[in-house]
TrEMBL record:
GO terms for cellular component: cytosol. The gene is tsaB. Residues 186-226 are annotated as: Disordered. InterPro entries: ATPase_NBD, Gcp-like_dom, T6A_TsaB. Residues 32-148 form the Gcp-like domain. It comes from Corynebacterium pseudopelargi. This is tRNA threonylcarbamoyladenosine biosynthesis protein TsaB. GO terms for biological process: tRNA threonylcarbamoyladenosine modification.
Length: 226
């Protein structure tokens, strides 16, 4: 089965073509501001590089987070649009579980940046989610012992104070990891793991005190000329 894999749960957009667990092509785009405009052209580049076309794709795998609202929806909406247009199945996976599948040890903790001085975390034991995903401040992470801890470098100092790990690495979702945890019997409906409300807030309308709160409406008679 030829899979298109997509993940935008972290600042790194990961796209890949995977056939029978073998990665044919992978692209990692670091500039989060360009993910939306670069996603489709990059998929086309990968297909061209492998001599394949959209008609060759048989399924789509998409990372569902946890991740921030704006970034996560770029990958998820695109993945579901590809699947719908091509008439092929799409399955959603935990981006944290995909990361954990790439790491050694039976007990793995995956931590990613949630912004607002918070982190997302998921504990994976023997390939299965044991606790999480959750969002909290690094100081509020539950104390635990793990074989491997994956955490972005800029958060390592804060996280290792709470977690005892044999090995500490910085790892992101990969095409191979996404494909490894995907299920197609039946496909898992993609459900975004936002874990909190988006940063954007509904604007509050404030009327000037100079504007009357109640504006009288014209009666039908007012609209007639004398």
């Amino acid at each position: 089965m030829l899979l298109l894999t997509v993940d935008s749960a972290t600042p790194r957009l990961v796209l890949g073509l995977v056939r029978d667990a073998k990665v044919l092509e992978q692209r990692c785009l670091e500039d989060a501001r360009r993910h939306n405009e670069a996603l489709v052209p990059t998929v086309m580049e990968m297909l061209e590089a492998t001599g394949l076309g959209f008609d060759d794709l048989q399924a789509v795998v998409v990372g569902c987070g946890p991740g921030p609202f704006t970034g996560l929806r770029v990958g998820m909406v695109s993945a579901m649009a590809f699947a719908d247009a091509l008439g092929i199945p799409v399955t959603g996976v935990s981006s944290h579980q995909a990361i954990a599948s790439q790491l050694p040890g039976s007990k793995v903790l995956v931590v990613t940046d949630a912004r607002r001085k918070e982190v997302y975390y998921t504990e994976v034991v023997d390939g299965q989610v044991h606790q999480g995903p959750q969002v909290c401040k690094p100081a509020d992470l539950p104390a635990m012992d793990v074989d491997t801890l994956s955490v972005p470098q800029h958060l390592q100092q804060a996280v290792v104070e709470q977690v005892n790990a044999t090995e500490v690495v910085e790892c992101y979702p990969s095409a191979q990891g996404l494909a490894a945890v995907a299920q197609f019997d039946p496909p898992q409906t993609p459900e975004p793991l936002y874990l909190r409300r988006p940063d954007a807030k509904e604007p509050q309308v404030q009327l000037s005190s100079a504007i009357p709160h109640h504006v009288p409406t014209a009666s039908p008679e007012d609209s007639h000329e004398g």
